[in-house]
Write a structure and sequence with these properties.
The structure holds 3 protein chains of 3 kinds. By secondary structure, chain A is of the alpha/beta class. Chain A has 10 helices and 10 strands. Chain A has 2 domains: 142 residues, Rossmann fold (3-Layer(aba) Sandwich), CATH 3.40.50.300; 81 residues, no CATH class. Chain A is 37% helix and 23% strand. Chain B is mostly helical. Chain B has one domain. The longest helix of chain B is centred in the middle third of the chain and has 27 residues. Chain B is globular, with a radius of gyration of 21 Å. Chain B starts with a helix and ends in a 12-residue tail after the last helix. The C terminus of chain B is likely disordered. Chain C is mainly alpha-helical. Chain C has a single domain, classed as ABC transporter involved in vitamin B12 uptake, BtuC (Orthogonal Bundle). Chain C is globular and about 55 Å long. Chains in contact: A-B, A-C, B-C. At the B-C interface, helix 5, helix 11 and helix 13 of B face helix 4, helix 9 and helix 11 of C.
Chain lengths: 257, 329, 289
Amino acid sequence: MDLLSARGVHVHFGGLRALDGVDLSVPPGSIYGLIGPNGAGKTTLFNCISRFQPYSAGAIHYRGRDLGALGPHDAMGLGMARTFQNINLFRSRSTLDNILIGMHARLGNPLAAMLSLPSGRRREGALRGRARQMAEMFGLTDVLDQQVVHLPFGYQKRVELARALASEPTLLLLDEPVAGCNEEETRELCEIVRAINRDLNVTVLVVEHDMSLVRAICDEVTVLDFGRNIARGAPVEILNHPAVVEAYLGETVAPHA
Amino acid sequence: MSERGWQITLTFLAFGALLALPAAIPSFYASLLAFMFTYVIAAVGVNLLTGYTGLVTVGHGGFFAIGAYTTALMAKHLGTSVVPGLVAGTVLAGIVGFGLGIICLRLGGAFLAIATLGFALAVGAVLNNWSIFEGREGIQLGKNSVAGLGIKDVGFYYVGLAVMAIVMLASWSIIRSGVGRAFVAMRDSERAAEAMGINLRLYKTVAFAISAAMTAAGGVLFAHHNRYVSTETFGDTWLSVDFLTAVVVGGQASLFGSALGAAFVVMVPYYLGELRDFAYVLNGVALIAVLVFAPDGMAGVLARLLRRVLGRTAREVAPVVDPVSVGRG
Amino acid sequence: MLAQQIVSGLATGSLYALTAIGIVLIFRNTRTINLAQGDFSMIGAFVALVILEHSGGSLVVATLVTIVAVTALAVVVERLIMRPIEGSDWLTLFTATLGVFYILHGVAGWIWGRDTKSFPALFSSAPLSIGGTLISQAHLFNILVAAVVGGILYLFFRFTKPGIAMRAITEDPVAAQLMGIPVRSIVLLTWAVGGVLAAISGILLAPLVYVSTQMMDGVLVKGYVGAVFGGLYSLPGAVIGSLIIGVAENLAGGYLGAQYKVTIAFVLIVLVLALKPRGLFGGKARREI
């Protein structure tokens, strides 16, 4: 069974049809790509899945559960974590705090936490231990207590990934993860995403504009254009698919690039 | 010792000094300090909402008033004193705060500020117009007592100190917990906070409720300190403005800053009081001077001083070398 | 009776509107909620009173001198106090204007004392009858002046270079800078215009209330409510919001009882914000994804 599936999703912004009956199915264990030219609706679908965007018709199921009535804060509790297109960290906080906030869904009884009751303190200790592990895994141990706003770009990207993975999600949603990265950084990020998928056994859905990343890491991709599905398959086939080539014509990033 | 270690040590030293202080000063000054404690308590409540959660309130004078009038009416009709007033006043203000939080859920920035200002003015209007609150005539409170024992200036000083310590300890416990992290997360980025599983509606209203309850505790003590409440004090928005000023001047998101800021708004006008109108001018100049020269408040200045003394500046600013993004602008 | 209540409500609302426009102008170009807007008017009223006494009662001279004086005051506040902290978060800017508020209150009390002073009436108290509705001449004059000021501002923003530049800064300060608009000069001009508006509303209000350091406190708060009512960015919104509040207040005072007159504005504003978080004219609350 698919881990995540969308059937006939519609989103309208006024008269504009951002999504016009889109389907998507992400098998468990995969790195799945969602691509399309600018304005194709891929970010809108991404936001429907992460619950930041309501949809007017259709259904999205995650592990068989209908997401329609849930809010953005429910996604994390179900085991879905996301990153943002442009890094969106808690800027005034340290690396450690950012990762700890990522574990909010595992806070337990908030009253016990607030009042520093014994159970709350035990839980806090466990969370902190786990956060340090996450930091180590992403090479952030040196900057644990630094305010994230002062960290270099590459570090911030890794803090965001560590924060998203801190709650041990089953599905990781990446929104254009290499936007603003140079070649070197893109290569590094590909490595990290592959490691996340392989070593942590996390399914990854990635919305991306950059074809080199899609070609390098995705097992399968779905292509959208004008709010509709136009193709689906392995990256190599898809990037030569006539409809896809046509959709990308005139785009600055050609699929062959 | 770590920076945090120093903070804790200094906090204990400060409280130790405050414990010993009444032995060294006339009871008149103990009373003045107790008055200041009520402002500190209120400012801590406002800081929790405005400094930590990022929801600016110009209406907490309303909660201060709820605390003060709850205990005043209880004293008048039931003959109670400080402790029952504290319990009832904080609970009632917490409930009202929760309600105001719901109404203000979708508001931010200046809109929230004006809505909370409206709340404070509405409270003032209710106090002025409903006869039970006695308007400008006001309500007298009897002699203060705790557990049946009468207390005077110095006794009340210790009651105020104890409540202030409890409120600060509670705030500290909340701030360093996952709940406090959620508050700050909402301030830094609501979207990212939601994505981390933080229920904005719940956490915002809870922040409102806790902050309202704390500020009301200050109001309860204020009423017992003056043993009199009237709309002369509670009918307008000056309390609300004072509390917000205390937070901005003292330092947002700093408990110690709340104390410094409250001292500023109580002591500067007090000592300048003789100068009358000129006091207003100096107060305004002092306020602007703090904003210009200490943008992160008095607590920020002290923290920098402390760090300099500890010689940690070098380590703080040492840049992280990122092998990947070297050369990035 | 009803028509009369509405007209005098519109007159009060016009006064709120002049303050609200000043607040919105300064807010949308500098993110500053200016607490001192009322004090500008208060100082203006005192200045006008002094000039009237020394100029043999010439209202024209008094008005001109007052406008120049208050505008100069607003410019000084911008240059000396607000500019050094430009770019700070809005709470810091707001608190700084509180500092200005204290200073101006203190200076006024220092120079002119704490006693209230009466301001000569500009018109006879005999009301005019228009179609059976009695309207006080002062009220009519207030509405007229507010309408003329509104018209001038409309033309200013529509057709003059500085007016268009001001609007551009509201839309997008960064783009405005890139387009070569001298943002700092225009911000200074914004404060100056705020000063002109404050001077006018001070002179209009002075004969209706006594002149004192507190004379503007009530109007200032209603000005904020009117500004927020209209969405804080929209000038027509601020005017309409202020008029609604003026009328609602008068109707509540007339039909429900005097004690409701004070509360109605706050009940209205809390209601409006609960339903439309960006005010009546603030557009749809957007959540940028």
